[in-house]
């Protein structure tokens, strides 16, 4: 053991519960680099002290084993046995190899326009960022890429590494990271048709990866896409979770798995129909009170105005109510704010004679909408909109009254 650091400063000794960084003269631990996270494991002394390594990072040129002393003490200069967590390393290796296979599959499926822009490799997933000017991948492209990766996994290629000059590596067809600087010698990793510059850890064979699944594909910048994917145990667990979810949905909806899409579409159509019917019912109920609203019309600037907040009324209900009020009001402005589940629907109408006198429903609504944290618009005779701030409904109507004076 070369050194022990606490908060960046060297110390001679640590005891139980101390968090520290341990520097060794040599180590089997892989420090985080090139997107691959650092190893975990333990450092054991001859006296039985146990230092639990929770992360491994570079500190300058040295490798720091960060962790907590679980049984000690440990003194600077002690000889330790370093043991990497084999399961942690195993899953990292497999996910790292999957990133290489994914790049090969993307180039095969989409062309050489695909250029790696970064990656991150963890124990239960990996991210692969790439430049691709054509935009998001279609469902069929994602299926093709997934199929190509899984074909390379089934082929069970043995991974082969070689140390060579950058020129020799380039001549071999190895893919390098754009903008990356390399020394006199580089390490090249080949996994079947995948050949890349790489200094990270990898599976022994592609067959170890078992199954490759894409979790998501999204944009993270102009022309840059990100794929998150999983292999091995993580992919198996995800597949089982999805299988259980589909089975549960099938039972709940009384449909076979293949029928779930159609069943959900029918349910969505039923919900839309019910919502429309409910709006019409609410409208008819509100319309029954239209006479009362008309009788309470205000005289503002020589115009009859009905301005009212209507509880439990959506946009559809407001249309029915407004039409019923207009029939009784004949000449006038109707401004309604319907509140339903915390959201606000706004509807403003003006009779033809008032439109000729310069009243503009669209302009009135534009004054009201910001007061309910919303927006909307329309023509001189009718305008509609909405917002999310039900508390502002009265203020919105007040703004319309003020504009009509």
What's the layout of helices and strands?
Layout: E1 3-6, E2 9-11, E3 13-14, E4 19-23, E5 41-45, E6 50-59, E7 62-71, E8 74-75, E9 80-84, H1 86-110, E10 115-121, E11 126-131, H2 139-154, E12 160-164, H3 166-171, E13 186-191, E14 194-197, E15 212-221, E16 224-231, H4 232-253, H5 260-287, H6 290-295, E17 298-300, E18 303-311, H7 315-329, E19 333-340, E20 343-350, H8 352-356, H9 361-368, E21 374-378, E22 382-387, H10 393-404
Parallel strand pairs: 18-19
Antiparallel strand pairs: 1-2, 1-4, 3-8, 4-7, 5-6, 5-9, 6-7, 10-11, 11-16, 12-13, 13-14, 15-16, 17-18, 19-20, 20-22, 21-22
> How many domains make up the 3D coordinates?
3
Q: Considering DSSP H and I runs of 4 or more, what fraction of the residues is helical?
A: 25-40%
CATH H level, superfamily name of the largest domain: Threonyl-trna Synthetase, Chain A, domain 2
Strand order across the biggest sheet? 2-1-4-7-6-5-9
What's the Cα radius of gyration? 34 Å
Report how far apart the termini are: 86 Å
Q: Strand share of the residues? A: 25-35%
Structural class: alpha+beta
Number of strands: 22
Mind describing the biggest β-sheet? Answer: 7 strands, antiparallel
Which word captures the global form?
A: elongated
Which consecutive residue ranges, at least 5 long each, have pLDDT under 50? none
The total count of helices amounts to 10
What is CATH's topology name of the largest domain? Threonyl-tRNA Synthetase, Chain A, domain 2
What distinguishing features does this structure have?
Diaminopimelate Epimerase, Chain A, domain 1, alpha+beta, 35% helix, six-stranded mixed sheet, Elongation Factor Tu (Ef-tu), domain 3, 405 residues, seven-stranded antiparallel sheet, Threonyl-tRNA Synthetase, Chain A, domain 2
